[in-house]
Design a protein that fits this description.
globular, seven-stranded mixed sheet, 45% helix, 260 residues, Rossmann fold, alpha/beta
Length: 260
């Protein structure tokens, strides 16, 4: 069982889309997948489990004094084999008041240890700010996936995230492998081309050799809260995510011209 953490210290770079796409593709293989939404905005939860807002329970409850069992908070998504531990707005309170409190950093790792036997993969979707939730996710992860929009300002958030990852490595005493995924790439623009070149020059060996293109079908899947349809869609974005999944696993990657 692997725990993958999608994170960046900048919003709007494709973290949630990347988490949902990878999780949906893995689940479509018949593997049991859990996605955990750590972002108080709960975008992933609204995408994969729209009913979560009506239930009113979620990840924030694990940080309460009378915390329920993690398994009691899990909701089935609209796709087979794919479950969600939804976020709540109350996670913002955890961020504001959790710094320095003993034990909060262990809540997520304990929940993962309890849930791990049920799943083949667990993916964590982080908030775009450095705090208790992101640090907890990085500390518990086997792999850090850093989706990074191919525009100049996104590189600053990436640099901050990689510094945080180094800090986590020193703290936990073991390596945190990391992979950088260029997202929202528009090859027609000079800004995207220059940003991608700079990303690869600054972080050799960490950046995926391909890119996730701008794809309206990914936005439509999010709008329509479709997880199952996303894995079944044949589009530039979904094909790119399938190739990314193979790369993350260390599997042979189908050449882009053949995949298309």
């Amino acid at each position: 069982m692997s725990v993958w953490c999608c994170a960046n210290q900048k919003g709007g770079v494709g973290k949630t889309t990347t988490t949902v796409a990878l999780a949906s593709l893995i689940a479509a293989e018949g593997r049991r997948v859990l996605v955990i939404d750590l972002d108080p905005h709960a975008s992933l939860s609204h995408w994969l489990a729209p009913s979560a807002a009506n239930i009113g329970r979620g990840l924030a409850d694990l940080f309460s004094a009378d915390a329920p069992a993690p398994g009691d908070l899990i909701i089935a998504s609209g796709a087979p084999n794919l479950d969600v531990l939804p976020a709540q707005a109350g996670l913002a309170t955890v961020e504001r008041h959790g710094i320095g409190k003993q034990g909060l950093g262990l809540v997520l790792s304990k929940a993962l240890a309890e849930l791990a036997p049920r799943y083949d993969a667990i993916l964590l979707d982080c908030p775009p700010t450095l705090g208790v939730l992101m640090v907890s996710a990085l500390a518990a992860a086997d792999l850090l996936i850093a989706p990074t929009q191919t525009e100049p300002l996104a590189l600053h958030g990436l640099d901050g995230l990689l510094r945080t990852a180094q800090m986590i490595e020193r703290s936990r005493g073991r390596e945190l492998p990391r992979r950088i995924v260029p997202t929202m790439y528009d090859k027609r623009t000079r800004a995207a081309q220059d940003t991608l070149a700079s990303m690869r020059a600054r972080h050799p060996g960490l950046v995926w050799e391909s890119e996730i293109p701008v794809d309206t079908r990914l936005r439509e899947a999010s709008r329509d809260a479709q997880a199952q349809a996303l894995a079944q869609t044949v589009s530039r974005g979904v094909v790119a995510y399938a190739r990314l999944l193979a790369w993350l696993r260390g599997e042979p990657v189908v050449p882009e011209e053949i995949a298309a």
